[in-house]
Amino acid sequence: MISVPLRPTPAWMSQANCQGTDTNEFYPDKGGDSTAARRICRRCPVRLECLKDALDRREKHGIWGGLSDHQRTALLRRRERQQAREAAATKQQEQAGNTCVTCDEPEDRWDTRDRLYISGGVKCPGCSRADLDEEKTLEHTEMAA
Ligand code: SF4
Ligand SMILES: [Zn+2]
């Protein structure tokens, strides 16, 4: 006889508050009352683990981690939108690419017509000029000394 290994049970399940309770409470009919189940979840020490698990599995039925399928779907959508926003921000940052080490101005805003503009340079033309001015002042001071 072939022995089929049991599906591993996450460790947190042993602490589930819903153990031994009426399963029907957690699977109310459409539009049914889930207050009792939610109350059990609210006091559950592994509520977050349970919710995460249900979200990861895209669980379609029942109350998990105190949330209904509808609420979990809304949470997932919100999370996806946030991830999309973060990805867009990262992409924008990558596109902006090089920035001036002194003033942080992204290179795409540097004045390319400036004589001191260096493509991919470490400093924007303005900061390069300020540096040169400083050196000139220094030169003068040294000469005067
Ligand atoms: S959060 Fe609710 S459904 Fe999940 S383990 Fe706890 S009591 Fe059970
Ligand atoms: Zn600069």
Low-confidence runs of at least 5 consecutive residues: none
How far the N terminus sits from the C terminus, by CA atoms, comes to 99 Å
How many structural domains in the coordinates?
2
Largest sheet: none
Order of helices and strands: HHHHH
Count of strand segments: 0
Integer average pLDDT: 87
Shape: rod-shaped
Helix content: 40-55%
Number of helices: 5
Bound molecules: iron/sulfur cluster, zinc ion
Radius of gyration of CA atoms, rounded to a whole number: 30 Å
- Estimate the strand proportion: under 5%
Question: Which features would summarize this protein structure in a list?
Answer:
145 residues; mainly alpha; 5 helices; 0% strand; binds iron/sulfur cluster
Describe the protein.
With 145 residues, the chain is mainly α. It has 2 domains: 11-84, no CATH class; 107-144. It is built from 5 helices and no strands. The longest helix is centred in the middle third of the chain and has 28 residues, at 69-96. The N and C termini lie far apart (99 Å). Residues 16-18, 40-41, 44, 46-47, 50, 63-66 line the site of iron/sulfur cluster. Residues 79-103 are annotated as: Disordered. InterPro entries: 4FE4S_WBL (IPR034768), Whib (IPR003482). Keywords: 4Fe-4S, Cytoplasm, Disulfide bond, DNA-binding, Iron, Iron-sulfur, Metal-binding, Transcription, Transcription regulation.
